TrEMBL record:
Top-level lineage group: Bacteria
Signal peptide residues on this chain, from the entry's feature table: 1-41
GO MF term set: hydrolase activity, acting on ester bonds
Name this polypeptide is given: Lipolytic enzyme, G-D-S-L domain protein
Organism per entry: Azotobacter vinelandii (strain DJ / ATCC BAA-1303)
Taxonomy of the source species: Bacteria, Pseudomonadati, Pseudomonadota, Gammaproteobacteria, Pseudomonadales
InterPro entries, sorted: GDSL, GDSL_Rv0518-like, SGNH_hydro_sf
Alphabetically ordered keywords of this record: Signal
Length: 451
């Protein structure tokens, strides 16, 4: 007689150690035939496709202005983000990581953006959280939305609008978003274009609440996270152009079905808190918790070396090579213990950095000597699964302590758009995720090293 495939499942419960072959023999011996039911396809997988690492808002006495209001109340915040991979559905991630009280979200929408804060009306979708439009983000917590049916292609932009009905102290943000957003009065989450009196809309390049976007893929996909400082965050990249070096890397990886998440924070350090917490303190949230992450690129350390003795850390001693290498090893081991491939990136040249600013003492020959020792250790110390030599990609061949003029933004520390492109093109994609089979650009020298 014929029975459903559930017979085999029940049989496996009776004989849990039996192999498929043994069960087949039993079926043949008893004369029972089985109608096989095709195995279910792998369920869709969620992958992180964009990120903005949360930071605590600093006080008015800090060297740099925070550029955010101290409080939001009965206002809508609209922000634009470019994803790396696309999908048929998306989720947004909101953060109250450094807030001291619950944060109320009155309504949220996503849409395809147009210019000057406008969005395509036919693309507006309401975002829910546990089936409800209203939500609360607890202090120190994040909040992931329900899936939203809004198909978006790879490397496309998404506009996220959030209405905050109650008095909301701003304690968590991402300082250097390099993307214009808007703060307008009232609930305008569903407005295709803002309706407001002249002077009532405020633009901002900081990220407020929005910490991540995830997309649903039809099959298991992978993500690469880059944890870094202002060079990764894109401090000198052209605003609204998506020209940070992880953006260019995302464009190279998208055809291979690999997402890129930028976990850079301007002013970030490996060993110490500053304009964000130290790397190990944010590793779980910014890297390990990202769905689909398979590889981590580490590009941190220049602020650890250069901040001491400046207005940012006037009394702090410079870290030793041993302290820095211990930090790198710990970061790599914790990520590797969770199954991630860990790639180290060398620290780029910075002679003459930040001239004419309160940080014009950021560079010193002794600091550069330590940078070169750190780079030598990154290249040859064996702590990483592979190395990307971004120092070699950006340095002036005649004066290697400086960034090549073609790649320099002008401040001698941060690469400009062309420098960011050169960094991304210097990456051998197979070093990030072996087996991608990506062909190298023959015009670009490869500065990646496999361990």
């Amino acid at each position: 007689m014929d029975i459903e495939f559930t017979y085999m499942k029940n049989l496996s419960k009776i004989l849990p150690s039996a192999s498929t072959t043994a069960m087949l023999a039993l079926v043949l011996a008893t004369g029972v035939s089985v109608t096989a039911v095709p195995a279910a396809a792998d369920p869709p997988a969620w992958v992180a496709t964009w990120g903005a690492s949360p930071q605590p808002v600093w006080g008015a006495g800090f060297l740099f202005p925070s550029n955010v209001p101290s409080e939001l109340h009965d206002q809508t915040v609209r922000q634009v983000a470019r994803v790396s991979l696309g999908g048929q559905r998306l989720r947004i991630v909101l953060s109250n990581a450094y807030g001291g009280q619950p944060l109320a979200v009155g309504k949220a929408t996503v849409a395809r953006p147009r210019s000057d804060g406008a969005v395509a009306a036919d693309s507006l979708r309401t975002v829910t959280f546990g089936g409800r439009e209203e939500a609360t983000i607890l202090p120190g917590a994040s909040l992931v939305s329900d899936p939203v049916a809004l198909p978006i292609p790879a490397l496309a932009q998404v506009a996220v609008s959030l209405y905050l009905p109650k008095a909301t102290p701003v304690g968590t943000f991402h300082w250097d978003g390099r993307q214009t957003g808007w703060i307008v009065p009232g609930d305008q989450t569903t407005a295709p274009a803002f309706e407001t009196a002249e002077g009532c809309a405020r633009s901002t390049t900081t990220r407020l609440l929005l910490a991540g976007i995830q997309v649903e893929a039809e099959h298991a996909v992978r993500a690469v996270v880059v944890i870094g400082d202002s060079i990764t965050d894109g401090a000198a990249a052209s605003p609204d152009k998506d020209s940070r070096w992880p953006d260019f890397l995302a464009a190279r990886l998208a055809p291979h079905g690999v997402a890129v998440v930028n976990a850079g924070i301007s002013g970030a350090r490996l060993l110490s808190d500053g304009m964000g917490v130290n790397a190990l303190a944010r590793l779980d949230r910014d890297v390990l918790a990202q769905p689909g992450v398979r590889s981590l690129v580490v590009m941190l350390g220049i602020n650890d070396i250069a901040w001491p003795g400046t207005a940012l850390a006037p009394e702090r001693p410079r870290p030793t090579l041993q302290a820095l290498t211990a930090g790198y090893r710990q970061l790599a081991e914790q990520a590797r213990s969770r199954g991630l491939r860990v790639i180290g990136a060398t620290l780029t040249p910075f002679e003459g950095a930040l001239p004419g600013t309160p940080l014009d003492d950021y560079y010193h020959p002794d600091k550069d000597a330590l940078r070169q020792r750190v780079n030598d250790w990154i290249r040859h110390g064996g702590a990483f699964d592979a190395v990307i030599d971004l120092d070699a990609a950006l340095r002036d061949p005649v004066h290697p302590a400086r960034i090549d003029a073609h790649f320099d933004s002008g401040d001698h520390l941060h690469p400009g758009d062309q420098g960011n492109r050169a960094m991304a093109e210097a990456v051998d994609l197979d070093v990030l995720l072996p087996g991608l089979g990506a062909s190298r650009d023959n015009t670009t020298p490869n500065t990646s090293q496999e361990r």
